[in-house]
Amino acid sequence: MAHAEYKKWLEPDNLIKLRSWARDGLTNEQIAKKIGVKRQTFQRWLSTYSDMSDALKKGKEIVDAEIEDSFISVMKKHTLTTTQYKMVKKDEFNLKAERTKFANIYKLDHPQATREEIAIATAEHVDVYEKIPISKTVTEVDPNASAIIFWLKNRRPDVYRDQTFQKLNEANARKTLAEAQLSEAQLKAIEESDDPSNKTIIVDDIKEVKSDDGNSETESRD
Fold first, then answer.
1. Residues paired with residue 133 on neighbouring β-strands, in sequence order
2. 144: exposed, middle or buried (C-beta count within 10 Å: 0-12, 13-18, 19+)?
3. Whole-model pTM?
């Protein structure tokens, strides 16, 4: 039975329904459960019928776009409108009219449906209560600083990279330079100690300097 049901989900109206479920954020497993088949069966349908997989893809792309728009909006100063509702039972005459209208449309779309199936579908889709707005509040919201930081770090990492890592890198660079300069100074000192000609000779008031021929002469201060 499930094997043959894929045909009805390739119909335009049902493809729209699949796209709508994907747009609402339902996973493939949840959609499979809604249409009454196993997840493996639904995955096989998607891999076989491109119209079905395209419908889900388009629905999910719409969700991604909506989330991006919502994320961008919180980075800007905006207004938030909150509406409170109360549930009120529909007028009996209006409720009966809505049910009759839905039942007639459902019967046209499902000519093989029994009276009981039509009644069940009508009860599921036509609510007895309706929401009546009782108050509305408009609040001005400042930009979300965390969202702005996240956006800039990912969109402009060359400019807005993490300052902690930047300072750490600068500190490591200074440390490496200092160690290199110290090593160079130590090496120079060792080289001087190995070469007598580079030594600085300190003499007292009476100093003895060897002459070129090996003899020595003594100088005395007056």
1. 85
2. middle
3. 0.33
